[in-house]
Specification:
The chain is built from six helices and four strands; from the N terminus they run H-H-E-E-H-E-E-H-H-H. By secondary structure, the chain is mainly alpha-helical. It has one domain. Helix 1 crosses helix 3, helix 1 crosses helix 5 and helix 2 packs across helix 5. It starts with 17 loop residues before the first helix and ends in a 12-residue tail after the last helix. A hairpin with a 6-residue loop joins strand 3 and strand 4. It is 47% helix and 10% strand. The relative contact order is 0.22. It has a two-stranded antiparallel ribbon. Strands 3-4 form a two-stranded antiparallel sheet.
Length: 158
């Protein structure tokens, strides 16, 4: 554990940090829906379950109100924003935060794409496209059908 409370889980492949994978997820193209906090959470969950073995378990997800959840994702989002690598804004009339890379973040994404294993980036890109192509209920249904153990505390039953 580092001084600031963040754990630095090293990823075996090319030593990318979990924050790097999160930034890549945000920076990759997606579907028609915004990259909001729900899609980020579900995307990183699916990546840590379905990505190559070297990136499994980037976070410690537990069942929560809307399925798999780890506060570490929010801490890493805040860290990336504090570093100026991403920007967030609220969708008008909602409490949903939408994330996008800053210009500095886009440069970092381009650099990471050269470093990251192609197979892992392909999986991450597929997951990003999937989670940003589903509406909220469809997304929950998709995740709950694949991983029903994470739906047990959900306040939504799609």
């Amino acid at each position: 554990m580092l001084q600031n409370g963040f754990s630095r889980r090293k990823v075996a492949v090319d030593m990318l940090q979990r924050e790097d994978w999160l930034l890549l997820f945000i920076g990759l193209p997606g579907g028609k829906f915004y990259t909001d906090q729900v899609r980020v959470m579900k995307g990183m969950f699916l990546f840590s379950k379905e990505g190559p073995a070297s990136v499994r378990n980037l976070y410690d997800f537990t069942p929560y109100d809307y399925g798999p959840f780890d506060t570490g994702v929010y801490r890493d989002l805040d860290k990336l924003e504090a570093q100026g690598l991403i920007r967030s804004s609220f969708l008008v009339g909602t409490n949903r935060r939408v994330f996008e890379p800053s210009s500095q973040g886009a440069e970092r994404v381009a650099h990471l794409l050269k470093q990251a294993p192609e197979e892992a980036v392909e999986v991450l890109g597929r997951i990003k496209t999937n989670v940003t192509s589903f509406g909220f209920i469809e997304l929950l249904r998709y995740v709950y059908n694949k991983y029903p153990e994470y739906a047990r505390r959900s306040v939504v039953r799609p």
